[in-house]
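Thread title: Can someone regenerate the structure for this chain?

I was given the following input by a collaborator and told the matching structure tokens would be attached. They weren't. Posting the sequence so someone can regenerate them.
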Amino acid sequence: MGIRHGGWRPERLREVREARGLTVSETGGLLREAVRALGLTGPEAAEREIRRHETGEAYPAPGFRRAYCLALGRTESGLGFRDALPGEAAGAVPLPALTGTWHADLRAALERSPGPLTGTAAQDVCRRIASAWSARRAGAADEARPTLLLVCGYAGSGKSEFARFVSRMTGWPVLDKDPLARPLVERLLAAAGCEPDDRHSVFYREQVRPQEYACLMAAADACAEAGASAVLSAPFVAEVTDPGWLERLAEQCAAHGTDVSVAWVHSDPETMHEHITFRAAARDRWKLGHWDAYAAGLDPDLRPAGPHLLVDNRGGSAVSFTDQVLRLFGGAAAESPRKGATHV
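Best answer:
Regenerated them for you:
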């Protein structure tokens, strides 16, 4: 499957740069700062690469596009990397003007995130993140009930990035299924004579996957029992579409005084394919080698069975937005947000 670049207008990147009064060299410096801030690895933001992007000689890789958005304060569509999504502003990242009431400002920013933010579940998640951030900024204890936030969605949708964003804002630990359970999964598969990177066989689905999720949920239960909030990152496709599973988890956590919230990260097949390709994880080899068959099994309309926050990350829109929120509000650090931050 080839990666399509619908709506790519290379000249738009140069237009935004020149409107900011930036030279190519100055833009390179901003990109390098953004790359460091995001913890990304990849090619150096040299002048030659920027010119190749501006002339259409090379389409920027996902990490480069993410750095451009952060450095220039624009959405991907605003920089000409793709068409705008329905309802997406094609210019500046839509953050609110700061009032100095940081807790309210953060909630206002979160409520402008891509995707429909309706219903009490979505508002509760935003309120909970803002509360934890505000408490950490003040160096005070968070008085709200502990929360177990499940960040779920298909492979390559942007779950890990969104989970890390929540963690950096709140200070809650991330329990990511892959690094947490991978040693066990690989040993079980090897002992059964299977490839350690197998994630598609009947044996994996029926014998290994249940143990993988059991490890993750045991760690989550330990957090709930200790009264600690946590962010769980895993596909959870079968689990969160089962009302009974969600009800049992909610009851189990409620017994420890902990609430359960669900965030579904939605993306499109082209974006997921690109992200999976560039992360180059061994566990994705089968997906990439049989992409058409794998993608045919994805349900773009799948959603959790219960109340949830929908994070629309088509085209990487939500990740770019959360990068801007982190820059503006400073994550979980106890420093004041940047009053002088501006958005082009």
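The beta strands are 147-152, 174-176, 230-233, 259-266, 309-312.
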